[in-house]
Structures are given as C-alpha cells and as structure tokens.
Amino acid sequence: MTQRVIIDRGAGIAVWRQIAEWVRAEVASGTFEQGSRLPTETEIAERFGVNRHTVRRAIAALTAEGILRADQGRGTFVTAQPVSYPITARTRFSEIITSQSREPGGSLIGSAVEEADALLAGWLEVPVGTLLLRLDTLSVVDGVPLMVGAAWVEQARFPNLLRDYAETNSLTAALKRGGVEDYTRKETRISAELVDADDARLLEVALGTPVLIMESVNLDPDGRRIQYGRARVAAERIQIVVPN
Amino acid sequence: MTQRVIIDRGAGIAVWRQIAEWVRAEVASGTFEQGSRLPTETEIAERFGVNRHTVRRAIAALTAEGILRADQGRGTFVTAQPVSYPITARTRFSEIITSQSREPGGSLIGSAVEEADALLAGWLEVPVGTLLLRLDTLSVVDGVPLMVGAAWVEQARFPNLLRDYAETNSLTAALKRGGVEDYTRKETRISAELVDADDARLLEVALGTPVLIMESVNLDPDGRRIQYGRARVAAERIQIVVPN
C-alpha cells in the first residue's frame, strides 16, 4: 500500500468516502491490480486509524459500483476486466491473452478415447464409431479460471497427441508435432447455459451463473476437419468479440 | 392428427412406446410442428383408446429426450430447434429468420430521447450529451419471443426515425428512409447474463435463465457509425453462428 493519502477529518467529506476514493485511485494507478485481493478491512482500518465499519462502508459502495467484488470466504477482490476474446480465422488462446498483457495458463484435466456418436461424427465428418481422443483442459488467465474445454481429434491421425500435449501444454504445438503446421477455424457456434456442478467447481463460480458455450471446428491447411472443441466459459469473465 | 398409426397390442412393444413412436413420427413429418402445442393427454388417449397414464408415460419419455417440453400451466410443446443466427457483415433479422423457413415478427415496445453517456458516446463516436433516439423492440420467431433490443441513433441525423419505424416495422427500412441505403456491422460483442425481471416477462422465460447479450455497432456506406444496439436474447432459443 502506498502512503500518499491521509484522511482529512475536516474536509467536509465523509471519512468512508475518502477511503473509497483512495481505493479507487489505487485501482486506477494499478497499485491494486485487477483480479487481486484487496487488503483486509482490518489492514485498511489500521492504515488510516479508522474503525472497520468505516472501511466496510467504503467497500460496500465500491462493490455496488462493480469496482470490487466479494468472493465468499476468500475476501474482497478488485474486479478484473472481462477478457476480450476475438473470434477470427486464427483464434489462439495464448496469443489472445498475451496480447492483452495478461498471463495465460492451462492444464490437462482429463482425457479419454471415445467412439464418435452422431453429433461428433457430424462435426468431424468421420463415420459414427470412429475412435476419437478427447482432451479436457482448463484455461486460466492471471491465475483465474476462464474456460473448461473438451477437444476431440481422430485418434488414428494423432496417435501421440496426448503425450505431445503433456510435453508442450499447447494443443496448437501438439497438433504441429502431429503434422498440422497450421489450422484455421471453420465455424464457431455460441450459446449460453447455466453452469453445471462440475464446471462450477473448476471455474470457481457459483451455481446458477451462466456460461457461454463455444463450439468450434478447425480445419487443417487442406481444409480437412481435424478438431472439434466445446468450451464452457465463465460468462462474467469474457466478452466475445466478432469483428467484421 | 393423422390416422395412420394403430396401436398393436400383440406387437410385443409396450403401448406407451408405440405412442411415443407415433408422436416422434408426427414431429419428424412436421404434422406436429416445432414450437406448437401437443394435443392434450386426454385427446391422445381417446385417439388410441388407451388410458391417460399410458400417454403420460410416452410424453415423459419424449420430454426426457428433449423432443417435448412441458410449459407449466400451458401444456406440452414440441421443442423448437434454436434459431441459427449467423453474424456476418450484413446481419438482418428478417432475412435470417425467413431463410430458415420461419416467421419473423416484431414490435416497437418503447422509445425515448436520451443524452449520450460516456459508453454510448464511445460506441457512436459522438460527444457526450449528444441527443440520441432510443428504440426498444421485441423480436419474435414463429410467435415465440426471441430477443429484446435497444438501438440508439443520433436524433439530429434521423429526425423521423420513430415515424418511419412505426410505418415500416423495420429498422433497416426506417434507416433507408433516413438516407442510409445500406449498413454493415462493424463489430459484435457477445456475453451472457441472467435475465432480469422485465426481460423475463417480455421473453416469456423463467427468472434464473441466461440471456445472450449481443452488442453491435453499424456503419453507413461511408464508414460512419450510425447505430449502436444492445440485444438480450433468450439463450435457449438461439445459437449464434460465427462463420470464418
């Protein structure tokens, strides 16, 4: 915490308002980073020599404004701006996040071999029953979960994809090892649902909150369908941008 | 109701299953149209000379499959396929709906003159405080509400827009009367929220269901920003398609 601001009890401005302005200034200057935890009420109260109720009133006002958000049991956080997620021919998670000066992360949370049902067979244009490898991933921005994704590829075409993904932590890199130098998005379908219990846990959102569903199919340079993906995205943390 | 199917009590297939198959066939053939109300349990029971419990079991099975949906107090409906809504440079509601052999509809539900706040001024690239005309519309597909929209234009540029809209029931036509022969989408931003009480009433969805938020700005042929819109769409009734 910086020490610039001193509460002025004779200024004709309520002390809680002065504290709210101080928090606002620290957020604006980046001293309190977006997405980070605010100091506790007690810490702020001690910093200014005021009581906790005064601090609480300031925090309540800023929460109502959407600058802060309470995360039950974890504290008060500086609201992060939603990730702006452009959908273009080459939509790459890491590049998108990095270009916004944010830190991408991700992990493989599961995998399976599945027979293509009618829906998957349709997306990938393979016969029903074709063996597919499914990768389940969790994508994170600045340490906050953003999306849970499942991606399916033909197992016979990418026999080492799981190992390659584990070694590179990138589907783009793993597909490249599998001989696909580049891929482009054919189509994305967007809908919304309420989060289910599993995704709520993974995304760290409350039950009853909406998730955006993004379904997409990717093509290799020859125009062949190589991957179908279905991502569930915490709606409060993203804004999808469709440029013309 | 067609009279093709006769229940065969000696066929070794439970009667409720035969009734379910009959409903399924009627839906597939279009006799029971998507979005329409199914005949009542009593009507179906009388049609086949079975009791209502048998019909109820068939309906329950089809509801579990997603082919039928119960609408409390209104009856059982044939589930409508979500509207497929492509976002392209020229996204026109009526054309999109008509191309899917569905019936578009709409109405003006409100209008106002507002001073541009910072957000609207930014979208339309006009000074804060500029007088804007806001049109609130409800768009309907096959008689079912799909989206509630608000659109803002500069009042000074389109002084007769409200009258023109009322006469044509089309924003595209009204803008054309205002001298804009054509317009293209510059950008669309998509997010999701829970429906609010007003929109739940207009969209005829339950509180706690998600709506997709589509924000877009349109350009005239000279590339000038002429309209900003913010639509809230019943998520269960739409699938947004972003082609490459």
TrEMBL record, chains A, B:
InterPro entries: Bact_HTH_transcr_reg, Chorismate_lyase_/UTRA_dom_sf, CP_lyase_PhnF, Tscrpt_reg_HTH_GntR, UTRA, WH-like_DNA-bd_sf, WH_DNA-bd_sf. Keywords: DNA-binding, Transcription, Transcription regulation. GO terms for biological process: negative regulation of DNA-templated transcription. One of its GO terms (molecular function) is DNA-binding transcription factor activity. Residues 13-81 form the HTH gntR-type domain. SUPFAM superfamilies: Chorismate lyase-like, Winged helix' DNA-binding domain. PANTHER family: MANNOSYL-D-GLYCERATE TRANSPORT/METABOLISM SYSTEM REPRESSOR MNGR-RELATED, MANNOSYL-D-GLYCERATE TRANSPORT_METABOLISM SYSTEM REPRESSOR MNGR-RELATED. This is Phosphonate metabolism transcriptional regulator PhnF. The gene is phnF.
